[in-house]
Design a protein that fits this description.
The protein folds into 2 domains: about 5-45, no CATH class; about 55-145, no CATH class. It is about 45% helix and about 15% strand. The chain is built from 5 helices and 3 strands. A 3-stranded antiparallel beta sheet has the order 2-1-3. β1 and β2 form a beta hairpin.
């Protein structure tokens, strides 16, 4: 996804009291390139952040299934924090188009995935060989998803 720059030049005008007021205005690139900041006002280029992609229902369902697999393949004594997350992810998938926190949810899912993937490859998961994210990440996911 590319980010289009916003070109701006500084202009001045006299206000009602006669004071000189400076302000920024958007201009096209050709005007920006010809604008002489030594004789006139300053110029700048702004870059806007790209819009965050919406999390897809498929991604949420896939994450839910992965967590369910994690729950069934590891010792249940440490899985209590995970028990409600699959259902919460499914609920989030149903609400994904209305969810104003979709970007946060997607970022958290990616963080959980990366931590599990890293743990698995490096062999620092649980004794059963299942990689687990840090407890801090799990707790932040619980708060984000509203799991009690």
């Amino acid at each position: 996804m590319s980010i289009a720059p916003v070109y701006q030049c500084e202009f001045c005008h006299h206000d009602a009291t006669g004071q000189l007021q400076w302000h920024w205005e958007d201009v096209n690139k050709a005007f920006y390139d010809k604008y002489d900041p030594d004789r006139r006002g300053r110029r700048r280029i702004l870059y806007t952040a790209p819009p965050m992609p919406l999390v897809s229902a498929d991604l949420l369902n896939m994450a839910s299934s992965a967590i369910e697999d994690l729950l069934t393949n590891k010792d249940r004594s440490g899985a209590g924090m995970w028990n409600d997350i699959p259902e919460q992810l499914r609920r989030a998938a149903e609400l994904v188009m209305d969810n104003s926190r979709a970007a946060e949810t997607e970022a958290m899912l990616m963080r959980l995935y990366v931590e599990c993937d890293t743990g698995e490859r490096r062999g620092n998961g649980t004794q059963s060989g299942v990689a687990m994210p840090s407890w801090q990440t799990v707790e932040e996911a619980r708060v984000l998803l509203g799991v009690k």
